[in-house]
């Protein structure tokens, strides 16, 4: 009987021990789970932060690019203006020169009254006139060309800017999509945190 009792006691103790162990194990497991969850959350948060950072960076870059483009445009405009001014100046100078020449011719003609001389002078004057006309035409052509070139450049610039904008928007959309579809938990996490 005593033996039996002893045995029973032993069994009971054993059982208790086992239970304790089990409980401990369970607790440990729970703890682990919690820790894991925490870790996961942290990771997700980190990922999201990275994404945000990337997006910001991209935005900044695009802005910079845009600024650069605008600056370039301004520069181009300035250059164009300068060129135009120069051209105008040249034209004026030419005109002046021609006028002077004409005047000189006239004076000469006045001086030399002989008929033959007169004829000669007339011819020369005609020639001069022709030359002047030609020069003018040339100048005009040049101006036109310059204008055309500048216009083309501007167009190109505009196109580039538009394309850049489109690319930027597309990239943004892509990233957002990725975040929403591929890791919605992250969004949940962040919303809950906030």
Please name the defining characteristics of this protein:
single chain; 194 residues; mainly alpha; 97% helix; rod-shaped
Structural class: mainly alpha
Round the mean pLDDT to the nearest integer and report it: 78
Share of helical residues: over 70%
Strand % is under 5%
The quaternary organization reads as: single chain
Tally of alpha and pi helices: 3
Order of helices and strands: HHH
Shape: rod-shaped
Question: What are the low-pLDDT stretches, counting only 5+ consecutive residues below 50?
Answer: none
C-alpha Rg (nearest Å): 45 Å
In this structure, how is the largest beta sheet organized?
A: none
What is the number of E strands? Answer: 0
Our measurement of the CA-to-CA distance between the termini, rounded to an integer number of angstroms, reads: 68 Å
Task: Provide a concise account of the structure shown.
Helix content is 97%, strand content 0%.
Structural features, described:
The protein is mainly α and 194 residues long. The chain contains 3 helices and no strands. It has helices at residues 2-111, 115-182, 184-193. Helix 1 (2-111) packs across helix 3. The radius of gyration is 45 Å and the shape is rod-shaped.
Write the layout of secondary structure elements.
Elements: H1 2-111, H2 115-182, H3 184-193
Helix pairs in contact: 1-2, 1-3
């Amino acid at each position: 009987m005593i033996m039996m009792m002893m045995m029973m006691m032993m069994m009971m103790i054993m059982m208790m021990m086992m239970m304790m162990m089990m409980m401990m194990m369970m607790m440990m497991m729970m703890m682990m789970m919690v820790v894991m969850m925490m870790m996961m959350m942290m990771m997700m948060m980190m990922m999201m932060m990275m994404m945000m950072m990337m997006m910001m960076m991209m935005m900044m870059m695009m802005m910079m690019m845009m600024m650069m483009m605008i600056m370039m445009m301004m520069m181009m405009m300035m250059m164009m203006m300068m060129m135009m001014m120069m051209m105008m100046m040249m034209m004026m100078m030419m005109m002046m020169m021609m006028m002077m020449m004409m005047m000189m011719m006239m004076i000469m003609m006045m001086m030399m009254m002989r008929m033959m001389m007169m004829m000669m002078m007339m011819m020369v004057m005609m020639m001069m006139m022709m030359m002047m006309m030609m020069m003018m035409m040339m100048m005009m052509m040049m101006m036109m060309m310059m204008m055309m070139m500048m216009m083309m450049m501007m167009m190109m610039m505009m196109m580039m800017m538009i394309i850049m904008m489109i690319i930027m928007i597309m990239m943004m959309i892509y990233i957002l999509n990725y975040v929403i579809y591929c890791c919605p938990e992250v969004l949940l996490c962040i919303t809950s945190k906030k």
